[in-house]
Amino acid sequence: MIRYSNEEGFIKAKGIKFREGQNANIILPKVAVGVFSSHLFQDVIEKFPCVEVGYISLANFEKNVYILKYKNMDITFFMAGVSGPIISADIEELAAQGVEKFIIFGNCGVLDSTIEDCSIIIPTMAFREEGTSYHYIEDSDTIDMNPKYTSEFIKILDKFGFNYTKGATWTTDAFYRETQDKISYFKNNGAVCVEMEGSVIASVCKRKKLDYFTFYYAGDNLDSTEWDERSLSGLSKLDKKKEVMFLALELAIDIYNK
User: Fold this and answer.
1) Which of 117, 131, 198, 214 is most buried, most CB within 10 Å of its CB?
2) Mean pLDDT, range 176-201, rounded to an integer
3) Nearest to residue 106, comparing CAs of 133, 83, 90, 89?
4) How buried is residue 117: exposed, middle or buried, by Cβ count under 10 Å (0-12/13-18/19+)?
5) CA atoms of 125 and 114, how far apart (whole Å)
6) Which three-class secondary structure state does DSSP give residue 147?
7) Which pairs with CB-CB distance under 8 Å and at least 24 residues apart come from 240-246?
8) Is the pTM higher than 0.70?
9) What is the CATH number of domain 31-255?
């Protein structure tokens, strides 16, 4: 049982933390891009002008936060935390430091084998099979996703020649419990993919009145008699995944002042 409360949380996010010499009064750029892949995260840091401005502190690890300059515009850049609890903390702390709009993307499993490996998926709704979102918004089986910026993103996909699929996603806490029974159930109810953060991103941003856009690039295939890993490994088809990174940066530029 999860008991929903509409009150504000007893513990408040205070923002990111700082090391010696960093500006503890900094207001972060209002658009943030978060990526779940450590390989893509590192590639961006090496490829573009990036300044480390602080870090998000968790119980047993830290994640550096950067200001990334892309096409002469400053963007908050961070490695998005895997799982609902961690991505919710990322959003809370970055919002407390000035971020108003989030673009978050990463890999997902597909429930339709015709969806091409590494192609783009735009979630329109999420089945909420996780716990974190139920602390942010009231109980429901689903939540609508991406109420803003879908048309802007599709124009970018068309410009760069990316195939895409729109549909529902299944957000789960337990990827080792993606059973054949569950796969069939969610596929039959319209889900085209499965991941671990979608419904949480939507619910946290809805409660905190933050703008967001989240999308996926297709990875492993669950629409088969046996699990098909395809490009799930972080280094598999890395050059193609690096191209996906530009989609997020282009969208950040496009929505900055919208």
Assistant:
1) 198
2) 97
3) 83
4) middle
5) 20
6) coil
7) 240/118, 241/37, 241/39, 241/40, 241/118, 241/217, 242/40, 242/43, 243/160, 244/40, 244/105, 244/118, 244/120, 244/162, 244/217, 245/35, 245/40, 245/43, 245/44, 246/160
8) yes
9) 3.40.50.1580
Quick one: pLDDT at residue 48? 96
Residue 235 has pLDDT above 90, yes or no: no
Tokens 């870090």 correspond to what residue?
55
Both tokens of 98, joined, read 């000035």
Dihedrals phi, psi of 91, to nearest 5 degrees: -65, -45
Contact 122, 165 (CB under 8 A): yes
Q: Which two tokens stand for residue 150?
A: 């879908």
- Count of residues in the chain: 258
Which tens digit of pLDDT belongs to each residue from 76-103? 999 999 999 999 999 999 999 999 999 9
